[in-house]
Amino acid sequence: MNLGGIKISSAELERTMGLDEDVGEVAAIGIPNRKGGDTLVAFVVLKPESLVTVEKLEYGLQVLINKFLNPLFKLKKVILVSELPKTASNKIMRRLLRDEYQAQLVSQNPIVSKL
User: Fold this and answer.
1) In this predicted structure, what is the pLDDT of residue 110?
2) Domain around 18
C-alpha cells in the first residue's frame, strides 16, 4: 500500500489498529486515488462487549496510526462488519473487501455518460 508516497504493508497497519481495546479484528485496504497512491479504509469487527461509536473508533484508530506509524497517514473511513471474508487457510480476502467498497462508491455516485 502506498500512503502519501510511503509504502507500508496492510499487516503493519492492521497490527497497529488492533491495539485499540474495542477492535476484535481489522482489515486495512488501499483504494487508489486520483493523486496517485492509496486511500486507507479499515473494515473492523468489534469485540462483543464493545459499545463504541464509529466516530470514536475512527478517532482512536487515527491516533494509534499517528503515534505508532506515521502522522501523515490518514484513515479515510472505518466500516463496521460482523465478520471478515477469509480463505480456507484463515487469511483475510482483502480483494473482496476492496471490490465491495469500490462497488458501493460507484452505486452512490453513478457517472452518466452521454453518447
Assistant:
1) 60
2) 2-83
